[in-house]
Every structure is written in C-alpha cells, then in structure tokens.
Specification:
The protein has 8 helices and 5 strands; from the N terminus they run βαβαααβαβααβα. The protein is of the alpha/beta class. The chain has a 5-stranded parallel β-sheet, with helices on both faces. It is globular, with a radius of gyration of 16 Å. The chain binds BIS(adenosine)-5'-pentaphosphate.
Length: 185
Amino acid sequence: MTRLIFLGPPGAGKGTQAKILASEYQIPHISTGDILREAVKTQTPLGQKAQSYMDQGELVPDHLIIDLIKERLGQSDAAQGWILDGFPRNVSQASFLEKLLTELDLTADSVLNLEVPDEVLVERLLARKRKDDNEETIRRRLEIYHKDTVPVISFYRDRDLLQVVAGNAPMKEVTDSLKAIIESN
Ligand code: AP5
C-alpha cells in the first residue's frame, strides 16, 4: 500500500507526476484542484462556493476542503493507498490530515516536495492556459504558496517524512527520481 503526498508550487508538476505514478501503482490520484474544478463545472453547491476563490487564486476555505478530503479518503478505492495532490495546502489542513490518518491508524509513507524556480513556473503556467493561468492569478497563487504552503514543508520535515525532488528537469527524469525515492521506502 502506498500513501504519498505531493507538495510543490503551482506549476511544479504535481498533477503531471501524480497521474503517471497513480496509474503505475494502481492507486487513486486525489487532486483537490481537479475535484473543485469538476464541482465548478457542474455547479454543485461546493463548486458555487469555491469558484470565486479559485478565479482569484485564493485558497478555498478550509472547512469545504476538509469535508471533501474526509469523504474522498473514506471511499473504497482509497483503501489501496493514494496520492494526494494539492492537499494539504496550509498547516491547519496538514494538522487535520494527521489527525484523520491517526484515527484511521494510518500514516503517509512519504511527502515529496517538487522544487522548481518561480520564473520556470510562470512560464509553464502561461503556456498551459487553464482558466486561472493568467499573470495576475498566477502571481497571487505564488504569493499564497509562499505564505501558506511553504510552512507545510517544515511541518513534514519535522516529522521526518519530507523528501525533496528537483522538478526542473525533463518529465521522465522527474518521474524516475520520484520512483527511486518511493521504491526505496
Ligand atoms: P490546484 O489545481 O492544486 O493548482 P496548483 O497548485 O496551482 O497546481 P497546478 O495544477 O497549477 O500545478 P501542478 O504542480 O499540478 O503542475 P502540472 O502538473 O499541472 O489548485 C487550483 C485552485 O484550487 C487553488 O488556487 C485554490 O483556489 C483551490 N484549491 C485546490 N486545493 C486546495 C486546498 N487544498 N485548499 C484550498 N484551496 C484549494 O504542470 C503545470 C504545467 O507544466 C503543465 O502544462 C505541464 O505539462 C507542465 N510540466 C509539468 N512538468 C513539467 C516538466 N518536468 N517540464 C516541463 N513542463 C512540465
């Protein structure tokens, strides 16, 4: 069973790599961003509440995300393991996850932090053209990342779970680095 958390700034390649590895290890890729975008697309109550935050590059309020994660990790396919992408995004989400996993008598195997310089991130995101990939929103997402998400790195370093991977390399090389770490655990 493999339980992984992917950290990294917007554009680091979390989603790209999580998809590849989830397929390889036959475990679900749980992306809070993908779940929220689907909710916005289908205009569920969650989507209606989340939309304006996402459009502005702000974090969606914790209580909405926490309910969503609790529900998703309780689904039957998650018993085989999972890759979390985009969660936790701040220390309060990380503390919630730690508590939830303790209740379930589980721990994460590894927290993989993809490092990529800001200027490369901006270039990648502008080329991708997702709805929130415009210069102003990207700048705000990076600010929020540095303010709220960077402290999550220390949270996991203090628990000896953090491993750092250079994300500014060709995709296949990044996949190989991640696999080497995961398979050595
Ligand atoms: P989310 O969907 O999580 O977006 P993000 O963190 O901004 O991450 P991205 O999807 O932009 O980047 P990524 O690291 O996955 O990179 P990707 O693989 O796509 O969140 C969106 C919004 O939802 C948030 O702003 C917030 O509002 C809300 N939200 C989500 N989770 C939340 C939470 N927990 N709490 C509160 N709010 C939450 O790659 C990017 C591009 O780079 C692609 O085009 C890809 O092809 C390219 N690329 C990838 N790897 C490489 C490589 N090695 N070389 C060259 N190009 C590459």
